[in-house]
Amino acid sequence: MKTTTATQVTHYEIQKKRRESLLEEWAGYHKTIIKRSDVVMVDSPSRRTRRGVYAGWDGDRPTKNLDASVHEVAPGTTTTIHRHSWDAIMFIESGSGWTEIDGQRIEWRPWDTLHLPSWAWHRHGNDGDKPAVFHTWSVQPMLEQFGVALLEEGGDTPVEELPKRPRQVEAIAGDDPYARRTQRLARQSEGSDSARLITRFDDVRGLVTKRGARSLFMVDKSIGYHTAGLSAVMHELAPGLYQSRHRHGGEAWLYVISGRGHSEIDGVSYPWEAGDLIVVDHWEMHQHFNDDTEKTARLVRVHNFDALYDMMRILLAPTNLFEELPTLDAPDLSNVVWPDHLAGRPEA
User: Quick one: 23 exposed, middle or buried, by C-beta within 10 A (0-12, 13-18, 19+)?
Assistant: First the structure.
């Protein structure tokens, strides 16, 4: 059967219109500040949790790179077990509990941070007498865009009876193209089995940065994690002070743990308080301010720079995708007396 294409419009007009309509559509989805009060908690009976979506398709706030959710596990509850092809960062807000990752049980309490590797079976439990609340940030939307976002449910099946995590190919000796591919992929997966899974807040200490904050890594490859590009840092802004201005090609999400302040993004001021999510879109000049003159403000910044951003840098070179002022406009922090890093942390 012969098929003849009868299109009367050239590929140029079709693609140009498609690109323009996509940008217009996504500009309408963007929201800089997502208030905690606007996040609706919904029962998820199949998982035995309650969940609210800050940003992501599941909460009718579509995104293309990251998503953000808040979860609540009731006292005396163990969730079902599942796994997925994307990895995620998990930050504990309140309460205490545990997460089982491929059969390894990890106890957690407020402000601890965990990494959920891709294809790792995991479930959560709360043996306490009050709800446990935690946040997750993942790259599920990006994998869905590529058609490889896969989710698998295990119900209450014991983890030892579930399929093992997919393993990377064994390196094949040789110098032919296929052998070299197996060698490269095998190197990338080295250390994943023994990679770090939790940062306990009791054990961390912040360092003052040139940008004007006390900061500490929560999840990053530099401290032993093996993520697919996700990274999380806690920034603490001094009373009444701020970070220096900068902008970058990849988006950054900041969850406000404590305090109140505002962010100036492309010249517009956006107020925020504890529980809000700040979404800094790509290539927006931005700066975060602590409006409380007596207490510090803490924010967890999450991004996917080591994957998406590095790819963008190469694809868009020689465009500079990270820009700061020639002289950083950071405040002088030499006389700041920082509180104990555990100050303000909720009781488990």
Answer: exposed
Strand ordering across the sheet containing 268-273:
268-273, 260-265, 286-290, 246-248, 322-324
What's the confidence (pLDDT) of residue 3? 62
Question: Cα–Cα distance between 321 and 141 in angstroms, integer?
Answer: 22
Average pLDDT, the chain: 93
CA gyration radius, the chain = 22
- Where do we find the tokens 């800094």? 280
Residues 6 or more apart whose Cβ sits within 8 Å of residue 142:
64, 65, 66, 86, 304, 308
Prediction pTM value: 0.91
How confident is the model over 219-245, as pLDDT tens digits? Answer: 999 999 999 999 999 999 999 999 999
Paired residues of 107 in beta bridges: 98
pLDDT digits (tens, 9 = 90+) for 13-47: 777 787 778 778 888 888 999 999 999 999 999 99
Residues 205-235 as b/e (b if ≥16 CB within 10 A, e otherwise) read ebebbebbbbbbbbbbbeeebbbbbbbbbbb
β partners of residue 97? 108
Mean pLDDT to the nearest integer, 283-310: 92
Cα–Cα distance list, 3 to 6, 268, 323 (Å): 9, 54, 52
Whether the per-residue pLDDT at 4 is higher than 70: the answer is no
Q: Which of 215, 268, 204 is nearest to 237 (CA)?
A: 215
The label of the residue with tokens 């197996």 reads 182
Residues facing 273 on adjacent strands:
260
The answer to whether the peptide bond before residue 318 is cis (omega within 30 degrees of 0) is yes
Q: Which residues pair with 94 in a beta bridge?
A: 133
Closest by Cα among 258, 217, 266 to 237: 258
Q: CA–CA separation, 26 vs 165, rounded Å? A: 35
Residue 115, CA distances (Å) to 118, 169, 232, 275 in order: 9, 23, 10, 21
Give, in order, the Cα–Cα distances in Å from 303 to each of 130, 309, 341: 31, 9, 23
